[in-house]
Amino acid sequence: QFTPPVPDNVDDETIGSIQFVENFAERFGPQHPMFFQGSLEDALKEACHRPSARDRKLLAIYLHHDGSVLTNVFCGQLLACESIIQILLEHFVLYGWDLSYESNKNMFLSSISACVGMTASITVRNIPTDRLPAILVISKNRSQCEVFQVIYGNVGVDDLLSKLMEASDMYSEQLKIELREENERFAREQVKLEQDAAYRESLEADRAKQEAKRQKEMMMQSERRRLESERAENEAKRELIRAKARSTVPDEPLQSSGESITKIRVRTPAGEMLERKFTVDTPLELLLNYITAEGYLIDEFKVISGWPRKDLTTLNHESTLKELKLYPQETVILEER
């Protein structure tokens, strides 16, 4: 006749859990799950009260009772099954307690009420002896621990394994939500920390920034003067080019002169239209000079004509407008290079 794993009237939870593990192994053999040794509160901390949700596990509390006919089979066969041992090791923290003596049952009820809550205590109290042993699965949902699942002793190996896997899978899905929220919270905290650090650095470096600002303003002023001088110089060069081009453009021919005349329209990038008459024997260069004189230098603009499109600036400038078929009228389009 075996005595219950935890002696009657044990007055220390940690000692009781150590005795439970020793007596369990002596009675049912070395092939059994690894039980957490310590108080229920310590087991709950190990499983549920981790800083990050990614480190949490389910707490599986094995509730033993020598008065149940299911005990020997449950302990000797189900808890000795390698697949059961493995899943408990990977996904749970396993804590064992013996309810055989009323004194130890009351100690456990008081402890679980304090650690998890009155609902968990009532759940255990209401489990009839003939349904023990049982595995009470405790989870932490955000900040609250609660009974996640109760697995009673009248199950087979496959059923027990299935229930444990189902609990683990369901809890993993629950943790995904918490992990996402945790990551979002961490990101917000990081932003806050970075903002605070930046603010402190800003205060510490204020004097240096003022000096840097003054230096920057002086450099910008110097750069503005340089750019203004450069722009004036470039504008003077452009004006010189325009004036030189303007001096080469002949007077616009009169329609009554008897010469063959073509009318050239020039569409600017702004959508405006320039219009000028030329004799058909005018070389292309003079048309380009006219466009230059109007402020559109051929180094800066393409002169597009015809279909398929061709850039007149790339053609022989000595060719006449007639040879280029730019008569009796033609519209050319200016495009920035």
UniProtKB/TrEMBL annotation:
An example Gene Ontology biological process: ERAD pathway
Signal sequence range: none
PROSITE patterns: UBX
Database matches in InterPro entries: FAF1-like_UBX, FAF1_2-like_UAS, Thioredoxin-like_sf, UAS, Ubiquitin-like_domsf, UBX_dom, UBX_domain-protein
CDD domains according to UniProt: UAS_FAF1, UBX_UBXN3A
Disordered: annotated span: 204-233
Protein's name in the database: UBX domain-containing protein
Organism: Anopheles maculatus
Domain of life: Eukaryota
Phylogenetic lineage: Eukaryota, Metazoa, Ecdysozoa, Arthropoda, Hexapoda
GO CC, any one term: endoplasmic reticulum
Domain UBX: from-to ranges: 257-334
One MF annotation (Gene Ontology) recorded for this entry: ubiquitin binding
